[in-house]
Amino acid sequence: MSHTFDFDAALKALRSGQDLNGENGILTPLIKQLTEAALKAELEQHIEQDPSPNRKNGTTRKTVKSLSGSFELATPRDRAGSFEPQIIKKNQTYLTDELERKILSMFAHGMSYQAIREHVKEMYGMDVSNGTLNAITDKLIPELKSWQERELDAIYPLVWLDAIHYKIKENGRFISKAVYTILGLTIEGKKELLGLYLSETEGARYWLNVLTDLHNRGIKDILIACVDGLKGFPEAIETIYPKTEVQLCIIHQIRNSMKYVASKNQKAFMTDLQPVYRATTKEAAEIALAELDAKWGKQYPVVIKSWQTKWDNLSVYFKYPDYVRKAIYTTNAVEAVHRQFRKLTKTKGGFANENSLLKLLYAGMLKASEKWTHPVQNWNLTLSQLAIHFEGRLDNVLDL
User: Fold this and answer.
1) Pairing of strands 245-248, 221-227
2) What pTM, to 2 d.p., does this model score?
3) Which of 154, 220, 227, 275 is most buried when burial is the number of CB atoms within 10 A of its CB?
4) What is the band of 69 on the pLDDT scale with cuts at 50, 70, 90?
């Protein structure tokens, strides 16, 4: 026989310091009462709609765990045995939706399984196994697959690409794999993560597969792609998106250059390098690069040669005004996503398989993208400039 929830008694217990949640939580009897009432209503509706003679046939009891505590649930039965309860299914022993939301939220914040287990135990008096946690977080995988295959916009004015590396177990040993993050800027000026691609190697063939995937998912045009010197990328994009301008990330180029400059010369070298990438025009930048070569070329030929051979892709941004340059001369936008990923994965040495990594990054991406609700700074001005520089290519989407 079920007891009616006594609100006054609950209020008194709460004032005296009794917990709201947990094994002896004040809310537990209320959850039990509401669940049993809902099951009873389900059965009555089932019997009403059943064309064959049927009636109630007592209850079966089982222990159910919820975040408010464990309780014994009386599940009503029918004589015909055709009643299949939906709120708490026959073999279900805990209220899943509430628990899963909490667990997935903790997972998306980078908490380890051990930390999640301890938190659930401390807050709700429930023991949750690693197997249960795996089963819950694995529910992200079909969602991730669907996200990876979703249709994309026809045009993205800007796309940033960068890589982040992780150790993943394969055939009994950990190997380093790159996750390539592709972040786009929509016509509305809002960031959108277009895809996460996992690979051991990069090269023109690999990038051709990635770009073909983006094309098949609906992207017909990209105006500017900003990349971190990805091997084989410029050649591959030439095949799928021949009109796309490729801007190599200036920040990565500077960092890579400084690795080859002796520490005692780094300050002086940087002073002479600044007029190259901070120039107001491409012509002024080329004069500064020639002066850099004259002064440092003999000492650091590899560094100077790198700037010279990559110059076509390093200097794309000079044709635009300052507010456009800020958006395209660096892959900072995608690096901000990677910082979020690193927060999630910093306590993990390696991953058992690709899915265990990707589901965590996907959860983190959902968290990061919650903030992408407003257009980037000066977007209307930037779009106007792009419409002039890429004449005709934005007409359809801008109704020009």
Assistant:
1) parallel
2) 0.73
3) 227
4) low
Q: Are residues 134 and 159 in the same domain?
A: no
Tell me if 310 sits within 8 A of 231, measured CB to CB: no
Burial degree of 328 (CB within 10 A; 0-12, 13-18, 19+): buried
In the chain, % of residues over pLDDT 90 = 36
Quick one: which of 213, 164, 207 has its CA closest to 337?
Answer: 164
Residue 318, number of CB atoms within 10 A of its CB: 17
Question: Does a structural domain hold residue 396?
Answer: no
Q: Which helix (H) or strand (E) holds 32?
A: helix 28-49
The parent domain of residue 49 ranges over 7-140
**Is the pLDDT reported for residue 100 higher than 80?**
no
| Each residue's pLDDT tens digit, 353-394 | 898 899 889 988 888 888 888 888 889 899 999 999 999 899
Using DSSP, state whether 274 is helix, strand or coil.
helix
Integer Cα distance of 14 and 17 in angstroms: 5
Strands 173-185 and 191-199, bridge-based pairing = antiparallel
